[in-house]
Write a structure and sequence with these properties.
Number of strands: 13
Strand order of the largest sheet: 2-1-4-3-5
Strand content: 25-35%
Distance between the termini: 37 Å
Shape: elongated
Number of helices: 8
Helix content: 25-40%
Largest sheet: 5 strands, antiparallel
Structural class: alpha+beta
């Protein structure tokens, strides 16, 4: 990490997250020294919350924060941790109540998660659905049942998977549920650049969307692909001209069907990229990029 310039005005902060693999938000520690993974009580836009310290006390440039920062209220006490456990119990009790209310209103929605704020001033219901859901009457009923502020939030497949967690095809815990704090933009082009099968089943994650990990090595593949011809291009090799049959991106090798004379049967050979020269591009392949 680069050092902060001496003449740059800095502010002391701590980073607090409220979900597993969630974004760390900056708070003013005041005169309190905290350590990573400590529980702290803070005031947020949603109400008083208990979060986990992800960034211990440190100084950052003033330009990196949105002032004014809210101060932490305190490091969580044993009583606070006991309150959190009671909140988790209330959340579990709310599941069948919510399900019954949804059934009464005949709404097509699937409950994903429930969050009760630390101070029990507000309860959040996260749900998924195929389309828009008119849940106004449902909210009125839930308010009368729980006697607190109610908020329903419809989430997409990626957010649902992040909350529920699971195991990917790699055999490891899902990236979104373990360390990814934000979803990056992923495209089919990334799979093409990495010479992967475009079968949706093979490049889609548990959520049914393109796998987040396609983005991890994209920059490297873009750099390596700059030197390689496309399949179907005509190239000059030490053995004659030929058509590119395949490319091995990481090894920087090109498989070419070479004809020493136009009437000859092609012979397949593999060449390092430095040993071939592009003659003409395959127009169809080039247009599909």
């Amino acid at each position: 990490m680069s050092e902060i310039a001496e003449n740059t005005k800095t502010v002391e902060i701590i980073g607090v997250s409220f979900r597993r693999a969630g974004t760390a938000y900056y708070f003013d520690p005041g005169k309190v020294a905290v350590e990573r993974d400590m529980k702290v009580i803070v005031e947020t836009a949603r109400g008083v919350e208990c979060g986990t310290v992800k960034l211990a006390n440190r100084f950052v440039p003033e330009s990196a924060i949105v002032a004014p920062l809210k101060k932490i209220i305190r490091i969580a006490t044993d009583e606070d941790l006991s309150q959190i456990e009671k909140n988790r119990e209330r959340e579990a009790e709310a599941i069948p109540v919510f399900a019954e209310a949804v059934k009464r209103h005949n709404l097509d929605m699937k409950l994903v998660d429930i969050e009760l704020t630390f101070d029990q001033s507000k309860i959040f219901f996260y749900f998924s659905a195929d389309g828009r859901v008119d849940f106004r009457e449902l909210v009125k009923e839930l308010v009368s049942i729980f006697r607190m502020r109610i908020e329903l939030r419809q989430i997409g497949p990626r957010d649902e998977t992040k909350i529920l967690g699971g195991v990917g095809v790699c055999g490891r815990g899902l990236c979104c549920a373990t360390f990814l704090t934000e979803f990056g933009s992923v495209s089919v082009k990334m799979a093409k650049d990495q010479n992967l099968s475009l079968n949706p089943v093979k490049i889609s994650g548990v959520c049914g969307r393109l796998m987040c990990c396609l983005k991890y090595e994209e920059e490297t593949y873009e750099e390596l692909n700059k030197n390689l011809p496309n399949i179907g291009d005509t190239v000059k090799t030490p053995d004659g001209n030929g058509e590119v049959m395949n490319v091995m991106i990481l090894r920087q090798l090109v498989k070419v069907a070479v004809r020493k004379k136009p009437q000859d049967e092609p012979s397949i050979a593999t060449y390092p990229i430095n040993n071939i020269t592009l003659i003409t591009k395959n127009a169809k392949q080039n247009d599909s990029k």
